[in-house]
Design a protein that fits this description.
single chain; about 50% helix; about 325 residues; 5-stranded parallel beta sheet; alpha/beta; disordered N terminus
Amino acid sequence: MDSTGQTAEFERRENITKNSILVVEDDKLIALELTNILTPKYIVYLSRNGADAIELAKELKPDIILLDVVMPGMSGFDVIATLKGIRETSDIPIIFVTGLSNAKDEEKGLVLGAADYIQKPFTPSIVKLRVRNQVKIINQMRLIQHLSITDTLTNTANRRQFNTWLDQEWKRAVRHKSPLSLLMLDIDHFKVYNDNFGHLQGDTVLQVIANTIKKELKRPLDLVARWGGEEFAILLPDTHMAGACKVAEDIRASIEKHIIMFEEKTPTRVTASIGINCIVPEHHSFIERFVSDADKSLYRAKETGRNRVVTSEAL
């Protein structure tokens, strides 16, 4: 999965849904039977020919494709060869459903990238088991990918994912000449808080702050990441300075008024300082300078009293 796929998966991490399957079968009765077998547990899409299947696969990006080998027009071999050559569909596991029993045909499919075979006539239990095995592999891979880009304490993006997302949005902003805003947020006096209440309470504060930030972000492309320690980075694509200031102030105010409970007996409050930088990047602009100026704004916010928002324009 590429960086775009990873970020999209990150945005879907809390929305657990059924896995999806695209059934490609020209025989109406067989297509209906496969649909009936799989529908209770999976979201099933249906295509009757190879050309439509390719377009549907690109549009829907199903988790698995069940592909008939012998079809009019494009054969299953032609379809899998095409799908494996397209970036957005190349990683989708494909299970051939076929009445062919020749070892050379099976070898050809495996060479082209088929994950498994289901022989016709099939039994429902075999279909379910072969599909289940591929779904299990897919979900395990996604979990590993999710963990690799997630800060496990706060369930926000980690720094690795933030850097990937920033690079992607930076390039998009250069192409479209659109504004890009970055908020750097630091919890005020967090070391003192940890010393007074302990690290478990400190972890609770980090989780509350992360959830508070996420609630204030309204768009799918907005990203919050744990930058390190008690510091968070918030990337706002297509956002001018005025909009970034509004988001930052809403986050700051929400944190300030939030009562944090620990083991239902220690109500506390914390505040946060936020620095903002906004730029319409050009080809000669530097990401490092963009981040550095946001960080300087954060330090200015802390130097001038904390619990406030400071922009790079004020430096």
